[in-house]
Amino acid sequence: MATPHINAERGDFADTVLMPGDPLRARYIAETFLDEVREVNTVRSMSGYTGRYKGREISVMGHGMGIPSVSIYAKELITEYGVGTLIRVGSCGAVRDDVAVRDVVIGLGACTDSGVNRTRFGGMDFAATADFALTRALADAASDLGVAARIGNLFSADLFYDPRPETAELLKRYAIVGVEMEAAGLYGVAAEFGARAATVCTVSDHILKGDSLDSTARERSFDEMMEIALESVLRDDAAKGITS
Ligand SMILES: O=P(O)(O)O[C@H]1O[C@H](CO)[C@@H](O)[C@H]1O
Ligand SMILES: O=c1cc[nH]c(=O)[nH]1
């Protein structure tokens, strides 16, 4: 039952999938945090794995960079593999003075310069918001772990290299907690196909100050965020009365 982009069988994915942009970050998460891991997707090297975290079956798969890429994977996971919950575990840039490299941010909503949600929403502006219960679970998990996460609007950019010099200052003025490239699209896909989505990101660079982590750090050093995401799944289960 493979799709053009995923060569897993139905049942290979858990009901909940953690999704980093980087497939090598997906592998790192699987190898570091999950037991009984098996690889479930190899197409285009967009590594996908299913394993267990504290007994709870969870999958992790890369979604690539940008809204077009995450939209393909999220849609296929929901409609072809029955996935109901998608949690993006990303990196992002900061624009605010009070958000620094390695801070954790949670995307309550996501602004964007992409047109995808207008396309799907009849030309109108869709408020791209995360699932409330999932977001609460992420916030509570962060609090439990002693992490002061920032919760607010992300900006999901179409262009990593934005040629407009004024954009970063505008985003700062609107208190954007992080600039990344997928959340608004992920929230739109989830709304269109009846799934739940949320986003947690670690700040990898400060766009206005110039601080930046290298690619290895972006792949392998966001353990605090991974623990928040994994623990949020258990919290969310408990809130729904589901146990593994
Ligand atoms: O590190 P990931 O999760 O890929 O997230 C961010 O990094 C990529 C750009 O470098 C974009 O995908 C952006 O959203
Ligand atoms: O999309 C991204 C990710 C990290 N930093 C940015 O500036 N943009």
Automatic annotation (TrEMBL):
Site for Important for catalytic activity, residues: R218
Q: Which residues form the Nucleoside phosphorylase domain?
A: 17-229
Q: Indicate which residues the UniProt annotation says bind phosphate.
A: G21, R25, R44, R88, V89, G90, S91
Q: Which Gene3D superfamilies match?
A: Nucleoside phosphorylase domain
Tell me which CDD domains the record gives.
PNP_EcPNPI-like
What positions does UniProt annotate as the active site of this protein? D205
| EC number of the protein | 2.4.2.1
GO cellular component terms, A-Z: cytosol
Looking up SUPFAM superfamilies in the UniProt record yields: Purine and uridine phosphorylases
What GO terms in the biological process aspect are recorded for it? Answer: purine nucleoside catabolic process
Q: Its catalytic activity?
A: uridine + phosphate = alpha-D-ribose 1-phosphate + uracil; a purine 2'-deoxy-D-ribonucleoside + phosphate = a purine nucleobase + 2-deoxy-alpha-D-ribose 1-phosphate; a purine D-ribonucleoside + phosphate = a purine nucleobase + alpha-D-ribose 1-phosphate
Gene Ontology molecular function: any one:
uridine phosphorylase activity
Could you tell me the keywords of this UniProt record? Glycosyltransferase, Transferase
Where on this chain does a purine D-ribonucleoside bind?
Answer: H5, E180, M181, E182, S204, D205
Classification via InterPro entries: DeoD-type, Nucleoside_phosphorylase_CS, Nucleoside_phosphorylase_d, Nucleoside_phosphorylase_sf
Q: Which domain of life does the protein's organism represent? A: Bacteria
Its biological purpose is as follows: Catalyzes the reversible phosphorolytic breakdown of the N-glycosidic bond in the beta-(deoxy)ribonucleoside molecules, with the formation of the corresponding free purine bases and pentose-1-phosphate.
Subunit organization = Homohexamer; trimer of homodimers.
- Name the family: Belongs to the PNP/UDP phosphorylase family.
Q: What is this protein called?
A: Purine nucleoside phosphorylase DeoD-type
